Every structure is written in structure tokens, then in C-alpha cells.
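Write out this protein's structure.
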Amino acid sequence: MSKGYWIVRVDISDPETYKKYLAANGAAFKKYGGRFLVRGGKYEVLSGAARDRNVVIEFKDFETALACYRSPEYQFALSERAQSAEVDVVVIEGYDGPQPADS
């Protein structure tokens, strides 16, 4: 079974309000087994547009990743974020097929 991921890109406009979201989102991630693979950190844009912050969160599968986003716990965290950030979120299924070296 393939893992599920959130790919998140964020521009924060109100850091103080955004802190409320950060304090609240952990309940959902803990409940659904979310694991940060990328959380901020150094980056270099090689093509396309960028946002200030990038996050990748891993879940046991695609369905769990969706359930976390739709959960009451995460919806509460979103309400805490209010208008403090411009955010792109993609929930995507991982790939377990052959890799270039395997073909």
C-alpha cells in the first residue's frame, strides 16, 4: 500500500495569528500519524513560482492523509489560521513502482 503525503506551500502574512494554527495542528497530525519529512528549511527555486515555506507530511496511506485534512481537529486548526497565510495544499498518493535504476 502506498503512503499518502501532504505537499504544502505557504506565504505567511500574519506570523502572530499563524502561531495559533501551528499550536492547533499537532492534534490532527498526532491522531492520524502524520510525520514531517520537510518543515521549512533551506530551499532553492529552480523553476516556477515559490512560497516562503514548504512542508511535506507523510501518512500511512492516501486515505489517512485525506481523513486528517477533513478531520474536526484539522478543521479547527484551519479556523485558527484565519487569514494569516496564503496556502497551497496537495494531498497525493505515493509511488511504489519501478524506479529508473530498476527498469
